[in-house]
Amino acid sequence: MAGNIVVGCWDCDYCGADRIRGDIRVCPNCGKPRGKDVRFYMAGPKEYVKDPETVDKDPDWLCSFCDTLNPASAKFCSSCGASHEDSELNYFQNKEKQEREKREEEERRKAAQNGHSGAAAARPERSGSSTLRRNLFLAAALVAVIALIFSMMPRKQKIHVDSRTWERTVTVEKYRQVQENGWTIPGGAENVTSREEVYGYDRVLDHYEWVSYQVAEQVLDGYDTYVTYEDLGNGYFEEVEHSSPRYRTEYRTETRQEPVYVDIPVYRTKYYYSVMRWLYDREEKAQGADSEPYYPDLRLPDTERISGRTEQYWIISGSDRYSISYELWQQIETGSDIEVKTRQGQIEELE
Ligand SMILES: [Zn+2]
Ligand SMILES: [Zn+2]
Q1: What is the whole-number distance in angstroms between the Cα of residue 31 and the centre of ligand 2?
Q2: 258 alpha carbon – ligand 2 mean position (Å)
Q3: Cβ atoms of 57 and 33 closer than 8 Å
Q4: What is the pLDDT of residues 38-69, one digit of tens each?
Q5: In angstroms, what is the span from residue 67 Cα to ligand 1's centroid?
Q6: 251 and 330: one domain?
Q7: Can you give the pTM of this predicted structure?
Q8: Domain that holds residue 311
Q9: 62 C-alpha to center of ligand 2: Å?
């Protein structure tokens, strides 16, 4: 698509004349041809070229001998007559070169500046208060961990043994008749009755139902258009049209069939019966403050039995009570002074 061509302007570097038309190659004020520092721009009301086909779209070339900008079609420089072939840069390449040189110059200048103040460069200051807050938090966490470890650590202690106490316990079970129920009958069950009860549910398809739902769709609504102007590098600018599609969201209702299920109860025969079971009945304890611990002496009938035994031993010192193993407890005499290792109220070792 051949776009419209707009006539641009340029300023004369020698005499300062500005807004010289892009189709004029020599300054009307001082007579100098446009040279390497000329920059084309657009200003004022747009003037379109009547017949855009006649405009050469190639950029001017820069004469490397006298810095004159010449039209792309010219084989020789209009100022000095040098050949186009002996010059390397066009308008854009020259602009690129100038910008590169400007950047390099800027970097050199910065490097020189840093070299001056480099040694004295101040380090950026850390925010002091946030560091302090973090350190305080870490210190508090550390103290908590140390306190925990300390309470877990064995401690050496001197203890006067006021007394030694013990407690032994047996757990007694009783053979009893209990009422139970279930889907099967266990051996030894008596007085069995039964009835039909709900065992579970079967999920069964009952029917289908129409359900409506919304569907979102992006629909083309139109085009947004705008134009940009491309520098041709020879005093002219080409108008370029752009367009981008614009969409809107539309909703439509659709329907579909969804299954509806029902839960159908499943019945089975459930049995109710009485049956004999060994069940927890009670605990029997024996306690003492002497050196001869024993389990309670039980005369149990056939319908009772012992299902478990536990034993505990303590050293009493003033108002403190320490739990201790039977082996260590045996070695300690009432009225003696002992040195022990304790951990959380328990004596672990004799010294
Ligand atoms: Zn001039
Ligand atoms: Zn020249």
Answers
A1: 15
A2: 85
A3: no
A4: 999 999 899 999 998 999 999 999 999 999 99
A5: 15
A6: no
A7: 0.46
A8: 160-173+281-350
A9: 8
